[in-house]
Fold this sequence. Notes:
This protein is α/β, with parallel strands linked by helices. The chain has helices at residues 3-9, 15-22, 26-35, 42-47, 54-59, 129-137, 156-167, 181-184, 191-197, 217-228, 247-259, 283-293; strands spanning 88-92, 95-99, 143-147, 174-178, 203-208, 233-239, 263-269, 304-309, 314-318, 323-327, 330-334, 340-344.
Amino acid sequence: MEKWRQSLKTAVTDIGAAVRKFELPEDDVKKAAEMFRFQVSPHYWSLIREKGDPLYLQCMPDGRELEDDGDLLDDPLGEEPDTPVPNVVHRYPDHCLFTVSDCCATYCRFCTRKRKFGQCGHIDPANLEPGFDYIARTGSIQDVLVSGGDPLLLDDENLEYILARLHAIKHVRFVRIGTRTPCMLPERITVKLTRMLKKYHPLYINVHFNHPRELAPAAVAALGRLADAGIPLGSQTVLLRGVNDDPAVMRELMCSLLAARVRPYYIFQCDLARGNSHFRTPLAAGVKIIEAMRGRTSGMAIPHFAVDLPGGGGKITLVPQYECGCGGEYRKFRNFRGQIYDYHDVK
């Protein structure tokens, strides 16, 4: 049995063990674990230092998940109405989401698709046929994001079958994979896997890291194996209260990702998924983080701050406001130091 499969078999799934280890209030924590699957990979479990630390908060059930402020939704991004066939979400004209797995190595408590995760059982490849057919007959789709769950928890053969089918569709120009495996189960990124993946270029992988401590040596090595296979890597981070809503923490995360050959892509505002109220931050917090990085670190390390609008509105990006006045042909701007400059605009 491959090492990564052995690791998954020893994942922490006993909420009672977590209650005892961290001296948690048993009733509320167990109720939260019943609402949304609890599982932590051995690797990620080893990185948790203490109750309440940034990694603990992301994966441990919390009684606050039982609270409902009225704005939180089971399907916060309105994916279901944009699902023409099972497993395909087609919202934007030229690209679609293709969910091929409902398993993760660790289940993040803030997950936007927690409605889909009960007992983990991989989606039968035969059930993906309507998705392949839809993508093949929809000529506007140039870009397919293969997601889940986590696609890299499929075995190499099933994952290659999916990539080969998509690669054979002429109007699909490139494929992306969304995964948190390098962070949660770095041993999954084997030489055998990377050799298979590199056969299907142009292929891009978006990874998911939320805190600098997640970039442990094993994770950095896994990212290196993917980069060495010629796969461009981007990162997606979720802005989470108590985890990374500090400009210094986020700056360190983004620079560390860049050093690991991962281009920061998005910081996402936490979605309005049920159980997420204690993770939410004001929108101003994300704008402040971008402003704190601008001019103080490499532009390559600065991602977009995005909000995925509820109800299927799609992504919008928010930026700091640098324009501070307009007079005739001149517009006034402030720079990252707060200094004011005039800019002569053309008519």
